[in-house]
Amino acid sequence: MRIDLHTHTRPHSPCSAIDPADLIKEARWVGLDGICVTEHQCRWSFQEIEDLARKGGIRIFQGNEITTNQGDILVFGYDKDVRGVVTIQDLRREVKEAGGLMIAAHPFRGFLLFGITQLLMSVEQACQRKVFQYVDGVEILNCKLTDPENEMAGQVAERLGLLPVAGSDAHRLDEIGRCVTIFNKEIGSEQELIEELRAGRFHTEFRR
Ligand SMILES: [Zn+2]
Ligand SMILES: [Zn+2]
Fold it and tell me: Which of 14, 32, 41, 108 is the residue whose CA sits 20 to 30 A from 67?
């Protein structure tokens, strides 16, 4: 089952240009079986998810992208809107209590921009970043990042034994489905999505 785990729509994410109805159409067009909306700091209501799912054809899941003092975190199974920046420790505690899952989103975004490669940051050094102590997984493919940035995330995930997931971080229609997480089985609920992620029963793909 092919799912894009990281997408933004408006108006819930004002930075996105994607209308939810178009999200579904485009997702089907590019061969996805499911889509996960991960708005910034907010969740859709149950009714909104139901209404969108009724438009048909693919499964709709939802997570949440939360800004912490250690960067953006994709959270699954945590049913709360969070306002402002939270500490990664507080988020970890709450998500753990809720039985949810945390993924470090685009952990090396801006890596090239800030010239860190010139400093020859090693994978060992990259692994020291505090964020990795508090997450279950790492986004190793994100279509907004450069290849070296994604590759570094992949190496860190492997070294630290963290779940290596993919998500497009789509803010525009043409970005939907570029980074896909492909699950071994059909997934029917957010709980199942979390179980399959936790068990690592998936692989990832980047559509160029
Ligand atoms: Zn982000
Ligand atoms: Zn995002």
Answer: 32
Please, what CATH class does the domain formed by 2-206 belong to?
alpha beta
> Tens digits of per-residue pLDDT, 47-81?
999 999 888 789 999 999 999 999 999 999 998 88
Instruction: List % helix, strand, coil for the chain (3-state, nearest 5).
Output: 35, 25, 40
Distances (CA, A) of 161 to 23, 29, 71: 33, 34, 20
Mean of all residue pLDDT scores within the chain: 93
Range of weakest confidence among 46-50, 99-103, 138-142? 46-50
The H-assigned helical ranges of 11-135 are 20-29, 46-55, 88-98, 123-127
Ion ligand 1 contact residues with beta carbon within 5 A? 72, 105
pLDDT at position 107 is 95
**Angle (CA) 142 177 194, round 5°:** 75
Interval between CA 203 and ligand 1 midpoint (Å):
21
Ligand 2 is an ion; its neighbours by CB within 5 Å are: 65, 169
List of residues 6+ apart from 142 with CB closer than 8 A:
6, 105, 106, 109, 150, 153, 166, 167, 168, 169, 179
Question: Is the pTM here over 0.90, yes or no?
Answer: yes
pLDDT given at position 95: 97
